[in-house]
Design brief:
The protein has 13 helices and 24 strands. The protein is α+β, with helices and mostly antiparallel strands. The strands form 9 sheets. Strands 1, 2, 5, 6, 7, 8 and 24 form a 7-stranded mixed sheet that branches. The chain has a 3-stranded antiparallel sheet with strand order 12-16-13, with no helix packed on it. Helix 3 crosses helix 12. It is globular.
């Protein structure tokens, strides 16, 4: 496949090289980011009568929700309310139109997905959708509420945040444009604004001892889901010969002691939209830098008898998929993202391209390599990239799945104890319910010379749990007019449940609601009266508790 160029960084770098004359813009609320949370926050700000500017580094808005993650991780759908539920209602309305079913009859699309139906007829919501449908819904919000979105606008992370007396006065992007606001919202997956504003954050896994947790830190020997090597497979190029060198993707580092803190991150991937419709698929091409040796571990997995290649080709409408990681060697590019959160824009671009090269090479390997079982190659030949998705980017998603980057250390830190409802939350601004889910973090060599993955955790909460307003707030002494609905204040493993797109939309709306109250009351975001916030959120049909 022709090498993809993620032009957003190039544009930002060019802007930095040729500084335009400074221009200033002002709004009540300035939102940095183009994610689903950013758009719901902007909608709520406008509904509340406030001026708002969305400063989006992305050209395509909606983040992962429009970037390939169409097989929604919902958990208990009854706790998804407000604008988040409205989004899925709009998905439902779209698919009521027969014209939406171009490549498949609606009757042929079954109620599939994690044991729950794609469509709730009585609730008039639909939870599984095509990427372009999601993006159009976000664009509809922008048009309907006349939201000012500045695209391809990249925060100057080194000198672009001006603070005075603990408040952000303005932010400046790489093209020299300044944005002044009364309250700011960091709705990025990376937490770039909070970091540039001097707010405390954490990258990597805390030790279990930090918050008295069980599922945080290094989890050597803990094997959840099915994403681990179930048979002995040598980590070396020549099986059993340590002098031959390690296979590609296997780390030479010691994995760490159980429960210890580390700098590592759960793996990223692209959520690919594939099609098996002959008229709507693009064949998997051979990447220019393709190296079959990068997939030797997968060849050995196949040789061991593993046959689960297509288990996460999750069906979305019109004979397409949201294809996700599955198994010991899959789309997750394990261990290749550790520097992403703190990396420069240029280095992030390289990491994104490396992930694209890896996954596109994987598709070619599965389709063509003789080490892949014939039945797998035959089935893969039926699939290709969906021709009518991500058209401007070679049919490849624009958004890498940043499962975790920075996490704020704020007014209140959500931990696994909160997700297990073991502590009382007195100021809920939304609810979560999904499994505490971490993808693998590293691939290492066991003492016997065989390979194993580490970091994949899947633990279910006892029931839907409340998310504290304090998790959206920086510490008072660090910043008094910033709210953070995505990189929330939480431990690694608690974030593993919170980090779902419906929850980000919930928290985006709640953050904007709090911002409005802070502005109207001439208060810091920490001083907002929770009783007032609760009243407003309930009026917006947010769900804050369950019986």
């Amino acid at each position: 496949m022709k090498k993809l160029f993620y032009c957003f960084v190039i544009m930002g770098m060019l802007s930095a090289c040729g500084q335009a004359e400074s221009t200033e813009n002002q709004a009540d609320i300035v939102i940095y980011g183009g994610t689903s949370a950013a758009i719901t926050a902007a909608v709520q700000a406008k509904k509340s009568g406030k001026s708002v500017i969305v400063v989006s580094p992305d050209t395509h808005i909606g983040g992962l929700s429009s970037g390939g993650l169409g097989f929604t991780d919902t958990g208990d759908k009854s706790v998804i309310g407000g604008l988040s539920r409205d989004f899925y209602h709009r998905v439902y309305l779209h698919y009521q139109d027969s014209a939406a079913w171009r490549w498949q009859q609606q009757a042929d699309y079954g109620n599939k997905g994690q044991g729950t139906p794609a469509m709730d007829g009585d609730a008039r919501t639909m939870w599984i959708f095509e990427p372009h449908v999601a993006e159009q819904i976000f664009e509809d919000y922008v048009e309907e509420y006349k939201i000012d979105v500045r695209r391809d606008a990249w925060l100057d992370r080194e000198k672009g945040v001006v603070k005075k007396d603990g408040r952000i006065v303005s932010i400046r992007t790489l093209d020299g444009t300044t944005y002044r606001g009364k309250v700011f919202i960091d709705a990025t997956y990376e937490g770039d604004l909070l970091a540039a504003a001097g707010v405390s954050y954490h990258v990597g896994r805390e030790a279990n001892a930090t918050y008295k947790e069980k599922w945080n830190g290094v989890q050597v020997g803990v094997l959840h889901h099915g994403h681990w090597f179930k048979t002995d497979i040598s980590a070396y190029k020549v099986p059993g010969d340590s002098t031959s060198g390690l296979l590609y993707g296997v780390s030479a580092e010691h994995p760490g002691e159980y429960g210890a803190a580390d700098h590592r991150l759960q793996a990223y991937c692209f959520r690919m939209c594939l099609s098996n419709h002959p008229e709507n698929r693009v064949a998997f091409a051979k990447p220019a830098n393709y190296d079959a040796a990068h997939y030797e571990l997968l060849a050995r997995v196949f040789a061991s008898g593993w046959r689960e290649t297509f288990n996460k080709f999750d069906p979305i409408p019109n004979r397409k998929t949201d294809t996700n990681n599955h198994g010991p060697f899959s789309t997750d590019f394990i261990g290749m993202n550790y520097d992403y959160p703190e990396a420069s824009y240029a280095r992030r671009r390289e990491i994104i391209q490396e992930h694209a090269d890896y996954q596109q090479g994987l598709l070619y390997f599965l389709s063509h390599d003789p080490k892949v079982p014939q039945e797998v190659r035959t089935e893969m030949a039926k699939w290709g990239l969906a021709k009518d998705e991500f058209v401007a980017n070679g049919h490849w998603p624009q958004q890498l799945y940043i499962r975790e980057a920075r996490r704020m250390v704020g007014h209140y830190v959500m931990t696994e104890h909160d997700t297990f409802s073991e502590r009382e939350i007195t100021d809920p601004v939304g609810m979560g319910s999904y499994t505490l889910d971490s993808h693998n973090v590293q691939r290492y060599v066991k003492p016997d010379g065989n390979v194993q993955n580490e970091g994949d955790i899947g633990v279910s909460p006892k029931k839907p749990y409340q998310i504290s307003y304090g998790a959206l707030l920086p510490k008072q002494e660090e910043c008094t007019n910033l709210l953070v609905p995505v990189c929330v204040s939480s431990s690694h493993i608690a974030f593993g449940s919170i980090r779902m797109e419906p929850v980000f939309m919930i928290l985006g709306e709640s953050a904007a609601t709090a911002a409005v109250l802070a502005i109207d009351g001439n208060k810091t975001v920490q001083e907002v009266e929770y009783a007032d916030l609760r009243k407003a959120l309930l009026a917006q049909k947010q769900v804050l508790a369950v019986d």
